Amino acid sequence: MKSNVKKKRSSKVDDRPKPSSSALKGSAAKAKEGGSRWTFLTNHSHVLIVLHAEPELVLREVAARVGITERAVQRVVQDLEEGGFIRRERVGRHNRYEVRPDVPLRHPIESHRNIGDLLKLITG
To answer: Are 113 and 104 in contact (CB under 8 A)?
Structure first.
């Protein structure tokens, strides 16, 4: 039986440091441990954040960090590329991804901001 008592929320500002690229490693596993069923940011934004931190990362590793399949990452990367949010450059046998920070966010509520603003907020 659930209790109807609401927990008091702290009014303190969260002044914890922003995640570094090394902090992004294993982030999907950490989310699962915490019992998260949803997050505020989408898989598209998670993939974008990981590629911004490590532009030469293989998609298999991006998938592991985000917690989705490699095929899902391929679809997300295709969406991001078609939307002009990233550029893909072939370097030898690998790809390098360039995030385009000046591209505005898509939804009307957030279209006054761009990708760079989102990345600064998340990565510091």
So the answer is: yes
Q: What is the mean pLDDT of the chain?
A: 84
Rounded to 5°, angle at Cα 114 from 108 and 120: 130
Q: Does residue 4 carry a pLDDT above 80? A: no
Length of the chain: 124
Q: Is 75 left (phi over 0), alpha (psi -120 to 50) or beta?
A: alpha
Query: 27: closest CA among 95, 114, 87, 18?
Result: 18
CA distance 96 to 57: 8
Quick one: average pLDDT of 46-58? Answer: 98
What pLDDT, in 10s, does the model give residues 60-112? Answer: 999 999 999 999 999 999 999 999 999 999 999 999 999 999 999 999 999 99
Domains of the chain: 21-33+40-123 (1.10.10.10)
Rounded to whole angstroms, the Cα distance separating 10 from 8 reads: 7
